[in-house]
Automatic annotation (TrEMBL):
<dbReference type="GO" id="GO:0006269">
    <property type="term" value="P:DNA replication, synthesis of primer"/>
</dbReference>
<dbReference type="GO" id="GO:0005524">
    <property type="term" value="F:ATP binding"/>
</dbReference>
<keyword id="KW-0235">DNA replication</keyword>
<dbReference type="InterPro" id="IPR005259">
    <property type="entry name" value="PriA"/>
</dbReference>
<dbReference type="InterPro" id="IPR042115">
    <property type="entry name" value="PriA_3primeBD_sf"/>
</dbReference>
<dbReference type="GO" id="GO:0016887">
    <property type="term" value="F:ATP hydrolysis activity"/>
</dbReference>
<dbReference type="GO" id="GO:0008270">
    <property type="term" value="F:zinc ion binding"/>
</dbReference>
<dbReference type="Pfam" id="PF00270">
    <property type="entry name" value="DEAD"/>
</dbReference>
<feature type="domain" description="Helicase ATP-binding">
    <location>
        <begin position="275"/>
        <end position="441"/>
    </location>
</feature>
<protein>
    <recommendedName>
        <fullName>Replication restart protein PriA</fullName>
        <ecNumber>5.6.2.4</ecNumber>
    </recommendedName>
</protein>
<feature type="binding site">
    <location>
        <position position="546"/>
    </location>
    <ligand>
        <name>Zn(2+) 1</name>
    </ligand>
</feature>
<dbReference type="InterPro" id="IPR041236">
    <property type="entry name" value="PriA_C"/>
</dbReference>
<dbReference type="Pfam" id="PF00271">
    <property type="entry name" value="Helicase_C"/>
</dbReference>
<comment type="similarity">
    <text>Belongs to the helicase family. PriA subfamily.</text>
</comment>
<keyword id="KW-0238">DNA-binding</keyword>
<keyword id="KW-0639">Primosome</keyword>
<comment type="function">
    <text>Initiates the restart of stalled replication forks, which reloads the replicative helicase on sites other than the origin of replication. Recognizes and binds to abandoned replication forks and remodels them to uncover a helicase loading site. Promotes assembly of the primosome at these replication forks.</text>
</comment>
Amino acid sequence: MNVASVIVDVAVMQTDRPFDYEIPERWQEVIQPGMRVIVPFGPRHVQGFVLEIKVDTEIRKLKPIVEPMDIIPVLSEELMKLAHWLTIESLCFKISALHVMLPAAMKVKYSKLIRLTGEKSLPPELASLFKGQTEIPWEEASDAGALADIRKEVKKGTIEVIYSVKSKGRKKTVRMVRCLLSEEALAETVGTMAKNAVKQKEALLAFSGRRGNWLTLKETGMSSATAKSLLGKGWIEEKQEEMYRDPHSGRHFEPDKPLKLTENQQEAIEPILATINDGTTETFLLHGVTGSGKTEIYLQSISQVIEKGQEAIVLVPEISLTPQMTERFKRRFGNDVAVLHSGLSIGEKYDEWRKISRKEVKVVVGARSAVFAPFENIGLIIIDEEHETSYKQEENPRYHARDVAIWRAAYYDCPVILGSATPSLESFARAKKGVYTLLTLDNRVNDRPLPSVDIIDMREELREGNRSMFSRTLFDKIKDRLEKEEQTVLFLNKRGYSSFIMCRDCGYVAGCPHCDVSMTYHRHRHQLKCHYCGYEEPAPNICPECGSEHIRHFGTGTQKVEEELLKLLPEVRIIRMDVDTTGTKGSHERLLRQFANKEADILLGTQMIAKGLDFPDITLVGVLSADTMLHLPDFRSSEKTFQLLTQVSGRAGRHHLPGEVVVQTYTPEHYSIQLAAEQNYESFYQQEMTMRKMGGYPPFYYLALINVSHKEAIEASSAANKIVTKIKPSLSPAAVILGPVASPIARINDRYRWQCLIKYKREPKLTAVLKEVLEHYAKQGKSNELLVSVDIHPYMLM
Ligand code: ADP
Ligand code: ZN
Ligand code: ZN
């Protein structure tokens, strides 16, 4: 008997293994590994993935597969292997690893239908339920209290219950028609038609000269009623053509040609091209300041890959998937490019995925999850801005796109390019050790100078009586740009520094009742909102603690900066980009276009403007608060500050006009700020490595973070203690266990949080014991309300 081993779509520990199902005779030829199937599981029917097909000689009573969901496998053998690897590496359920590789549209819902078999007639009380239809939704029967009667009929064979899969990923189709008449017959027919058949005549005439072509109804100008009558007469035929929802429809991309590489670029690209040609796997770290021509190297490497008949994946951070970035790929490779990002609708994403799956494109440009693009002949994987923490997924499977890229590249024997102006310490250390190959671009293309950077000590400003959020230097320079009609970018480092409400008399800070964090003040609605659990309440006008009216909001949100700027310079035109103004689809793109068209003097925003912007008239970049991130309880805070400041500075003076940068800070002496101003990556690396070595952090140690949460603080802490006791004996004396301690954010959504950080170099037993811990708590099920999670190589430590 042929048996399929299936991973079912139920993400709990007990089901995290394959289950065997019989393959019914009629699907013997159809069902293959990598396909989705519907299988019975307990009382339900669920979706599952076929892992393998086995021939089973044992006599067992297996349940049969209900039906296949795919005609061809949606996951290749390679992706199935990758899923297996992900499961082990990130300690996730196999079903999570399989799901992450498919677009959301392919996650299906099931609906039950009750259908008449037509074998015998129904008793009248049930017949009325069907109202002449052959099938009705299960819910209708259930609501009518008819399920018991229906069960009887099912036994008799009058009725069957079927499981219908509601796929969100509907293909979009368009109706096409074609004329079957010869040119003469067409003219003759039109001539002999009744006078009042105007519409039909027009419709037929639309085909003259285009006979034999498939046209959409729109192109012929006929209505569906007209089409119906022409079809009835046999004059035309029709078909449904599958259509892609094209997010770029109506946009024309002016094709461009490869640029002649500079000597420096030529040196960097040669080893890459060599590995592409030889078909060897190697990881390159391309370190080059912003504007040094990294993207041009990507483009030309991809050309080589396409020429060889292979495919390329390009990952860019979601936030820099700007139209400007994707346009460069569209211009170079035209219709060979698919783009995947969160701005697309579920349907659009599904369509892009299908283009990749059918190999109708050669290049995919996308955010993190595009690393799973279903190509089967990959020749190159590129990760731009490789230091970005958004490449790590913060939910199961907790994978890092860099690791997945390197795995896939090894499978296909092809190179990986990691590009950055500020590589992560981990990657740079690997390059220094020779694990990665370091390629360096020292200068900007055509030696355009890097912008000059002024560091302004805001304590000094305060001492000299300037209480505004703009230093005198920055303000003067903004005014100067307004006069010269040049553009300014103002950057507010908002992370860890949003506006909150505080009482000036008693110091009360409005905190979330469910989490140990202060709530963020939203001025336009006068509301307080918790960004961790979503709780909202109206902002108070008097202090709930002491009754004082001196309660007001602190912190510098982008809105507040905008207001202050308008007070000082009423005529200035500002475009503000933050979560509030970019919430709707396409708004990000629209605002950038407005700025590019010089409809504003100043672009003001948060993290999201730090990257990818490349406008010729930006000559001033102001960083309003450089150090807000430095004080977060995160060993990467200096690295993140350095990266962000370097990125932001890179926005100025990219073209013919020279650029200036003003960095305002309360800690001007900090090495991450000083060295970012000098754009001195190498010194920063040395300094930061010393700190990491002293602290015992990556890249000197690996980390594993265990998070425990429970509604009762005591339960969370005691479970965390038990876990540590359990793990300790399996670790070598070289491993360091920090904790358990209460997490920096000790409560979220009414759950108390404890954590334990393991620092290690080589612990062969670690993943096994962590898996045991997870299994142990999962077995206790939901009843005890305890949640335990493990994050290997964590990026979020709060
Ligand atoms: P990066 O990706 O390192 O920021 P880009 O590839 O975007 O750098 O290059 C910066 C600018 O220089 C772009 O406007 C690009 O068109 C231009 N450029 C890159 N390479 C060359 C070249 N070889 N010759 C002329 N201009 C180039
Ligand atoms: Zn008060
Ligand atoms: Zn909250």
